[in-house]
Amino acid sequence: MLSTMPSFAAKQVLKRVPTIAQHSLSVVPFALKAKIITELLSVLMKEQMEDEELGFLIGRWVAIKVTDFNLSFEVSYDNKWLVREPFEADVTFSADSIALIQVAAGVEDPDTLFFQRQLCIEGDTELGLEVKNLLLAIELDQLPTFMRKSVEQLARGVATLQRKSSEMLHQKNASL
Predict the structure, then answer these.
(1) The whole model's pTM is what?
(2) Which residues form the SCP2 domain (predicted)?
């Protein structure tokens, strides 16, 4: 379906989805967001939790900012996931939703996005590297099928929309 979408429509979808998501997320109570984030982390990091690989997060807070969704939160781990509203994190990861989807799907490496200035890491560099390495250790194959397929489809959809949107730009430049 997305492959047949006109390039103008693809550009509009890429432009409008963050605005819609931003509005939708603004009406969701933080407690519900925190519960969802906690559940997602528990599924994503199940193996690391079982292998006791998260000790470096005890007493440390990692902020995540999804810039185009205006979504910010902090996470820590102390034998369970802790999620709070932004306060005073040790390290902060900031990116737009597309960059984060690409990382989650394994389509893009966080280092590449960092050097392309699409992913910003501020604060405790050592903790930031440990978190980045933890994220890279997540194997999509170990995720529940519905979650893995959702992330993969979302990444493919975003790539298609970006390609279509880029086609519009190339067509516009060719006509000049």
Answers:
(1) 0.78
(2) 46-135
